[in-house]
UniProtKB/TrEMBL annotation:
Entry membrane topology: Multi-pass membrane protein
InterPro entries attached to this UniProt entry: Ac/AlaTfrase_AlgI/DltB (IPR024194), AlgI (IPR028362), MB_O-acyltransferase (IPR051085), MBOAT_fam (IPR004299)
Superkingdom of source: Bacteria
Name the record gives this protein: MBOAT family O-acyltransferase
Length: 484
């Protein structure tokens, strides 16, 4: 069940909303909570009911481990640490088995010339996200930063449907207390208005902008045997904006849907393509993932204080940065393209840290230009199905195949244009509009802070109608991060 589907918008979401608040109004609080857990698990099982036992067993085991870590009876530091290590290994092993087994076997066969049969495991939906979320819970419990909660509340924390499939990755302290507040059990019309408005912005981003770019992206990456200079750049730029509007659209829809239930999810995007350096980019892009990598990977590795001298500090800082983002790349997918993407960002952050250490600065325009183009270049590996596919696009971007206008012919049919130049113009309009939106526009959270309710209503109606219209003339498409 997709956020951008009719069944979610017109059936699942309103039905879940009304039943949840009806039960709360009748003061059946625990039943309302149980219903929301049931609805979330039903939402999760819509793709494949076989995923259900996996997430349920994961929640049960992690809840038991977290309870053991946080209880006052667990006084022995050694035993608590052993429980934490077991919990982390369990979660990583679960993720690794489903996500990386075939990748490991493929490379083992290649290196040693063996022919071990691949398991061809289906990747369980959302496993990367709920695994990281529960690892964070265990670590926080070990640090005694969690409170005692019953399993039903914990299950709601993990399975709450707006953030279940592709984040944001949330902390227990951000979510659990919100469900316990009495005022959150009552319908809040201001939150409904803001939630519908933010949801509509996300719907518009996904079905109007991202899915339009997807036409060009698929053609350039998957259908064309080679790319020339202009098609190389337009293919990479199309994916750069498709990914942004697809994932930021999902996060807006998640935040909007959660607000209907009086739950505020953390912001995951803050105009990342405005960044003037790669560190700033990661403070703005997929903020909750960056926060997780910082708090639960980078800092435990030693962070920026791992040596006894300035030189050793710098060396270990750079090493920790590289390792952290290499792990971030591997987390996204089982393939060498993701390893390369993570390594590229790790190297970029190392260069930025070295640049900072000597006190050098670039003019803002040049700094933005370098940062944006690096991000655009690295996204090629993120999208490509193989390293060869990525090199195909990069060769085109470097002009190694010259210029060939024949490659634009598909735009005429793709955009239902009467002539080739009309199709090119439509694409260029989308590209220019995307630059303007990402560089000069405000985020959804900024918009709702500065506008009156009447403007929310008008904008909601316009965006919603446009979004539904585009849904009616195109097939539903999954969000990109569903694959991770």
């Amino acid at each position: 069940m997709l956020f951008n589907s009719y069944i979610f918008i017109f059936a699942f979401l309103p039905l879940t909303f009304f039943v949840y608040f009806f039960l709360n109004k009748k003061r059946m609080t625990e039943l309302a909570k149980a219903f929301l857990v049931f609805a979330s698990l039903f939402f999760y099982s819509w793709w494949n009911v076989l995923y259900l036992p996996l997430i349920l067993s994961s929640m049960l085991i992690n809840f038991a481990l977290g309870k053991q870590l946080s209880t006052k009876a667990a006084k022995l530091q050694g035993s608590r640490k052993a429980v934490l290590i077991f919990g982390i290994i369990f979660n990583v092993a679960l993720l690794g088995y489903f996500k990386y087994t075939d990748f490991f076997l493929e490379n083992f066969n290649f290196v040693f010339g063996t022919q071990i049969e691949l398991l061809k495991l289906a990747l369980p939906l959302a496993i990367s996200f709920f695994t990281f979320q529960q690892i964070a819970y265990l670590v926080d419990s070990y640090r005694r930063e969690t409170k005692e909660y019953d399993f039903l509340t914990y299950a709601l924390f993990v399975s709450f449907f707006p953030q279940l499939i592709a984040g944001p990755i949330v902390h227990h302290a951000e979510m659990m207390p919100q469900f316990a507040r009495l005022k959150n059990r009552l319908i809040n019309y201001a939150n409904i208005l803001m939630g519908l408005f933010i949801f509509s912005i996300g719907l518009f981003k996904k079905v109007v902008i991202a899915d339009t770019f997807a036409i060009w992206v698929k053609h350039g990456f998957d259908n064309m045997p080679s790319l020339e200079l202009i098609t190389g750049w337009t293919t990479s730029l199309a994916y750069t904006f498709q990914l942004y509007f697809d994932f930021s659209g999902y996060c807006d829809m998640a935040i909007g849907a959660a607000l209907l239930f009086n739950i505020k999810l953390p912001i995951n995007f803050n105009s990342p393509y405005k960044s003037l350096d790669i560190q700033d980019f990661w403070r703005r892009w997929h903020i909750t993932l960056g926060r997780f990598l910082r708090d639960y990977v980078y800092i435990p590795l030693g962070g920026s204080r791992a040596g006894n001298s300035r030189f050793s500090n710098l060396f270990f800082t750079c090493s920790n940065l590289f390792i952290t983002f290499l792990i971030g790349g591997i987390w996204h997918g089982a393939g060498w393209t993701f390893v390369i993407w993570g390594a590229l960002h790790g190297i970029a952050l190392v260069i930025h840290r070295l640049w900072q250490s000597v006190g050098l600065k670039l003019p803002k325009i040049l700094a933005w230009f370098i940062t944006f183009n690096f991000v655009n270049f690295a996204w090629v590996f993120f999208r490509a199905n193989s390293v060869d596919d990525a090199l195909k696009v990069i060769k085109g971007m470097l002009g190694l195949n010259g210029i060939n206008y024949e490659q634009y012919k598909f735009l005429r049919s793709a955009f239902r244009a009467e002539a080739l130049h009309d199709g090119i113009h439509i694409f260029l309009y989308f590209l220019a509009a995307s630059f303007i939106i990402t560089l000069a526009g405000k985020t959804s959270s900024q918009i709702v802070k500065n506008k009156e309710n009447i403007y929310y209503t008008i904008a909601f109606c316009v965006l919603f109608i446009l979004g539904v219209f585009f849904m009616s003339v195109s097939k539903y498409s999954e969000f990109i991060y569903f694959n991770f």
